[in-house]
Write a structure and sequence with these properties.
Number of domains: 1
Distance between the termini: 27 Å
Low-confidence stretches: 235-239
Number of helices: 10
Strand order of the largest sheet: 2-1-3-4-5
Helix content: 40-55%
Largest sheet: 5 strands, parallel
Shape: globular
Strand content: 5-15%
Order of helices and strands: HEHEHHEHEHEHHHH
Mean pLDDT: 80
Radius of gyration: 18 Å
Length: 239
């Protein structure tokens, strides 16, 4: 990942953890664009997961169509059930934590569609979420914030280098899971080797910058959560 974009990602990580502490939240990235962020979170040892979803997964009239088409509706529900980690099972990555769905967006369209699908799923399976899930848009300065505000979607502004990298560079080949569409009859749930390799590259970038771990530990360490990767790295540097 380009150095400038990675630095922006580190700053964003501190902001997200400050506003939504890892001891309380489980972070779920929507689609391909949050791939670097989720990979970084996972390397740090916090609760994080990827959720395959594309703005083309649902057309603008999909929610109305789902009400008439039980097959499409059942696929959406099955997809959310499979990729939403349990908040009640001790073995789950999101056990006893609130879920925050995160997406990088230039228009807010993808999050708006995801929100519609989420509303549909909660209506039919309210037990899926122990706590009300939270939506967060990560966006660049050129985005009309009014659009997100009008849709009651919370947002956070990100660095220019990071936004350009995620908005104009494709992470489709590095995503953990294949693109999912509600019209698909079959879907492979297998995690991809390319994503595991990408996580290793993120780990190498982290290993080259112990100062980030120092800032992370100083700013956020509460005694209730340990950033396992950082603890090991800082130990090797004698901190």
């Amino acid at each position: 990942m380009p150095r400038g974009a990675f630095k922006d990602l580190q700053k964003l990580t501190l902001r997200i953890f400050s506003n939504f502490p890892p001891k309380n939240y489980c972070y779920i990235g929507i689609g391909a664009s949050p791939t670097p962020m989720i990979a970084l979170f996972q390397e740090l040892g916090v609760s994080a997961a990827n959720f395959p979803f594309s703005r083309s997964s649902l057309h603008s009239t999909s929610v109305q169509r789902e009400k008439r088409d039980s097959l499409i509706g059942s696929r959406i529900i099955r997809h959310f059930i499979h990729f939403t980690p349990s908040q009640t099972l001790p073995s789950s990555v999101c056990y006893n934590k609130k879920i925050i769905f995160i997406d990088f967006t230039a228009t807010g369209e993808s999050l708006s569609k995801f929100e519609s699908a989420l509303f549909f799923v909660k209506k039919h399976h309210s037990e899926l979420y122990e706590h009300e899930p939270f939506l967060l848009a990560l966006t660049g300065r050129e985005l009309p914030f009014q659009m997100l505000e009008s849709n009651n979607i919370n947002y956070m502004e990100v660095g220019t280098d990071l936004f350009k990298e995620l908005n104009y560079s494709s992470y489709d080949k590095l995503r953990e899971f294949d693109v999912w569409l509600a019209t698909m009859e079959k879907y492979s749930y297998a995690s991809k080797d390319a994503y595991r390799s990408f996580r290793k590259s993120i780990k190498r970038q982290l290993e080259a910058d112990e100062k980030f771990c120092t800032r992370l530990r100083t700013a956020l360490e509460t005694g209730e959560i340990k950033f396992n990767f950082c603890e090991k790295l800082l130990y090797t540097f004698g901190y």
